[in-house]
Amino acid sequence: MTRPAQPRPTLAAVAERAGVSKATASKVLNGRPGVSETTRQQVRQAISELEYVPTTGPRAPIPGTIHVVFDTLNHMYPMHVLDGVISGGSELGVDIVTSTVASGGVIPDRSLGVDRIGEIAARGPAGLIVVTTQLTGEEIALCEEVGLPLVVIDPVNPLDDRVTSIGSTNWAGGVQATRHLLELGHRRIAFAGGPKESVPARERLHGYREALETAGVTPDPNLAHLGQFTIEKGIEIAEKLFDLDEPPTAVFAASDVIAMGVIKVAKARGLRVPEELSVVGFDDTYGATWTEPALTTVRQPLGQMGRVAARTVLDLARGKVPDSHHVQLGTALVVRDSTAPPNR
């Protein structure tokens, strides 16, 4: 009598024997990072004891969605990034699911949260892309634990090599914007910046200071103000700048929406742009060509950042180790009509 064939050991059985999740067992099997050496030994021992042999047929397809979380969708920057992610997802054959940390256009001052990450992971996406939202060490560790590939676009807080990030050359962009104003002849150049806790905002501020110091201009602390990336903050900063005894002749704004707030106040006070005030933005969002006059700005490759993030998160899902954990794409100055030599 022929004995019935014994059921073939599964990866789930290996994970149960090793006392880890199936995702962690898969990481070990595929040589992916993010697993301690002790855990690797436990999984390898379980594989040996169960005589587990990976399926030789085609691998299971990567799940068909990427989850993208924004801080808010209430301004133009995320629309460019989202367009790039969707384009990249279409090219790669995956769907994009989006959500936000906060609603109603409020910029959140909190991180994503471990409960939220757990909910996202339970839906089984190929990976998670987080845009301009801070992440805690606990949240990063949870993504590793559940085997959820993570990519961050324009990280708010500094990240270590456990996380792959996509951004732009913010420091160089700050230099480009400020140098343009210096070359036009401006010396009273103000900086209207983003949040002090934002890494991109700080890099743009450092680029601004570097360009001034290289030109022999001592940065004036009264001309540099930080705040949220909103038009309201641009208005608030501009009011302070224009109330100075010696106001600036030019403003470098750390985002296009901040620049729009500055221009709004300038017009309300009867200042002609660019004849009496030059303004440079950062991002080159859709609205940069809608302002009056059209905005000179530093172009971030926002769409390309989204496409690179989509491709990278799928590479991570397939077990590929990235060539670099922190990718920065180049910026470029786009000169339009909002800058001119100072009115002497």
Automatic annotation (TrEMBL):
PROSITE patterns: HTH_LACI_2. GO terms for molecular function: DNA-binding transcription factor activity; transcription cis-regulatory region binding. Residues 9-54 form the HTH lacI-type domain. Keywords: DNA-binding, Transcription, Transcription regulation. It comes from the Bacteria. This is LacI family DNA-binding transcriptional regulator. It comes from Glycomyces buryatensis.
